[in-house]
Amino acid sequence: MFGKDANKTNEPVNRSEEATLRLSDDIGKMADRIGDMSERILETQKIQGKNIELMQESMMEAMKMMGKQMETTNKIMEFMVKKGMGIDFFD
Length: 91
Description:
Radius of gyration: 38 Å
Number of strands: 0
């Protein structure tokens, strides 16, 4: 007498428990994916940080080279101007 009715009464509870367990499992999977993605993001940021550092070093070196080139160009221009004015450059 109680067996059939008890099973019917427990059906919604059992379904609710199953749904809760599925939801819990899905949340766990999502948390794992988020963890994996965050690790990838951190690794990408490390790589990008190193790339930026290398780019800055290269830019500084290029700027130094350009500065030296400008110094040389200025000396050449000064020599040409003085030569054109008849001034001895080595005085």
